[in-house]
Amino acid sequence: MIWAWVIFIGFVFAMLALDLGVFHRKSHVVSFKESLGWSAVWISLGLSFSVLVYFAYDQHWFDLGYSVDAVDEVLNTGKLAATKYLTAYVVEKSLSVDNIFVIAMVFSSLAVPARYQHRVLFWGILGALLMRGAMIGLGSVLVQNFHAILYVFGAFLIFTGIKMLVMEEKEEHPENNPVVRWIRKIFPITRDFHGQHFMDRAGSEWSRAASEPGLEAIPDPIVESAPVGKWLLTPLAVALILVEVTDLIFAVDSIPAVFAITADPFLVFTSNVFAILGLRSLYFALAGLISKFRYLKPALSLILVLVGVKMLAAKWLKLWLGDSFNLTVLAVILAILATGVITSLIVGKKDERNSHS
To answer: Which of 128, 136, 97, 48 is nearest to 303 (CA)?
Structure first.
């Protein structure tokens, strides 16, 4: 099975290297058309991978499909593994959309220039892959050895879903963020963006002039008072750290949600990876349209509650639904997600007509 992991991780790093080293080598504003194109590429790859999963588990490539899934205590056949992968992918993809709301607030509060946002998201997602890999490994060990942890996960997901539904969003200023306050105690942070750099030295060329063409340089008291040559964090680094922390918080919700579907570490990891890899392009496609999807958050809340209930009542639901259990869960999740999106668009159009009348 080790070769399955080696090949998949090698493919992921090759795609990331191609993305940053070829297609986005120079910082630029990602257009709506470009973001839609890349979103289509990543979603197509994510969905197509289910075909590979089917044959890999059906033919036992790299010894896949020989281990009992701790969630339902059965061997994953090709059809079952593909269904679980698709369900996990849809759950992760839908929950990652909620992540976009927070990332947009981070970029807005820090006034991150559009041309540098892709760089922040690239390195943020690379860090997220490493963090989630570690969390998935730990979660797999817990589920395999302590099956009762699934009930804890289920209760946690129901609580999180209800909390997401009733909690009001508050826009926080970065200077009031506890993470930013903690960073400031360790590293001095400049006020100005120094190009696409995450760190720079006091007294350098970027520290003596504004990074954006056409903007007048404003004296930065931190740069002026810092000893020449001292390393300083730029606001771009602060944005990167906040994006990483945001993903870690969302991973606490989303990874248990996937463990409600399968405990197979390969299926959990690959579904997470494909959902995250498309997050950057999805952000640029949806960032300007976020306000129009007002009913998406209630839909995501309902999905978390559904997955939590599925985790707590899996045995009874399986007896009731039989072999179509996993397909039914996938269909219901897709229906909830589609309802949230369609309702948002319909209500949005009605509001626009009423505002013009």
So the answer is: 97
Axis crossing angle, helix 114-145 with helix 279-286, rounded to the nearest 10 = 130
Distance between first and last Cα of the chain: 63
Residues 116 and 264 in one domain: yes
Q: Which two tokens stand for residue 135?
A: 């969390």
b/e 124-161 (16+ beta carbons within 10 angstroms → b): bbebbbeebeebbeebbebbeeeeebbeebbebbbebb
Contacts with 163 (C-beta within 8 Å, 6 or more apart), sequence order = none
Maximum CA extent, the chain: 71
Q: Note whether 123 and 219 are same-domain residues.
A: no
What is the rounded distance in angstroms from the CA atom of residue 336 to the CA atom of residue 184? 42
Write the pLDDT tens digit of every residue in 88-98. Answer: 998 888 887 77
What pTM, to 2 d.p., does this model score?
A: 0.78
pLDDT by residue (tens digit) across 112-163? 888 888 888 888 888 888 888 888 888 888 887 887 887 888 888 888 888 8
